[in-house]
Amino acid sequence: xSRIKEDGIKEAQMQVAEIExxxxxxxxxxxxxxxxxxxxxxxxxFALNVMGSPGVGKxxxxxxxxxxxxxxxxVIEGDIQSSIDxxxxxxxxxxxYQINTGGACHLDSPAIANASDKLLPKDGYLFIENIGxxxxxxxxxxxxxxxxxxxxxxxGSDKPYKYPLAFEKADIxxxxxxxxxxxxxxxxxxxLKGVRALNKTAPVVFVSAKKGEGFEEVTEWIKEKAKAIxxx
Amino acid sequence: xSRIKEDGIKEAQMQVAEIExxxxxxxxxxxxxxxxxxxxxxxxxFALNVMGSPGVGKxxxxxxxxxxxxxxxxVIEGDIQSSIDxxxxxxxxxxxYQINTGGACHLDSPAIANASDKLLPKDGYLFIENIGxxxxxxxxxxxxxxxxxxxxxxxGSDKPYKYPLAFEKADIxxxxxxxxxxxxxxxxxxxLKGVRALNKTAPVVFVSAKKGEGFEEVTEWIKEKAKAIxxx
Lengths: 232, 232
Known about the structure:
The first copy, chain A, is an alpha/beta fold. Chain A has helices spanning 3-42, 58-65, 84-91, 109-119, 159-162, 164-169, 188-198, 215-230, and strands at residues 45-52, 73-79, 95-100, 124-129, 146-152, 172-176, 204-206. The termini of chain A are far apart. In chain A, 46% of the residues are buried.
């Protein structure tokens, strides 16, 4: 057999192995997500997977939402490295568990199940702040009831067109840093058209975490969705 | 053997398989990167791996740099989906090849080698705009001579602490959207301290792609670095 043929066969074999391993990783994650979700239901905990790019304002948004809620909230804070956001939330009296992935580009269900066992949330809300990344987190369930996606006006209005999966899977979309809208070129119509091409139902809410504006609508939506889990 | 033990062994086997597959993917990529880099050297092409978060201004920065260069520049444009950025660059007369990864969170060397075979750059600059992501692109060589990292003032000053690999591996760091600095809380000292803890040598240049400010220093640096490859 020629060297080129041998290389080709080896490469094809490795590609098959790669697909099998990826499918297995994915399946194990989805199974763990479902188990965690059932466990959270029993504890009357409504879980939100909070996703968005680096620096979009995920922690600031949580700091704005949590004081407006009717029940206690816990946060699982995902970062590659550092505990800066956990320290910020702790200063506000919010009970937080830090996960450092070391390098992994998204959180996974086993890590969230473990963190949840440490926090032991009960009859309230569990916010899971995912790694700052508009790509990988959208692919993996982590036990959540809903996905809360945060975009912002400084990122530009083309994000739904370029990163469709996150926008397609979101249950609610926040557009943060609306206080900067007059200084940037953000085309609201283009953005909304892009979102609606992927997602017909998710509310799109413009907010400013810096000014604390726009969060009444968001918290009302969260409370309404949570009723099915936490009871009234 | 008990069910739990069997599950444990199966899981351990899958984890070994996962590590082996990942190492193989990584090794094949690095080998292809080296081959491509040698090919580019022969064509006197200086290649830059352009990295940064979604919406940080990668395409705008390229639009500001390229007209200031002394030789022709080509762009390989990486996106999950859409060809919005390629259309923008084409309007400026910049020859561009679009790669849509479909979902993959970073570009890889075989895709860049293929794109380079289509563009056939010669005696000039090849900018490779990676997927908007501050995590995954930093892990993979794609044939480049240098990594150009773009951050921006609206992302906040804590990014080096949270996404260390990209800052550690960068050869030059641009901080874009400096025109917005008076409207955001950006702590220049904290940012620079975080960068220097990871990276002693990369120049950090504050720019505004919107205003076209700060790019003389960047283009001088690029021209100087390229001399070794393209000759004077």
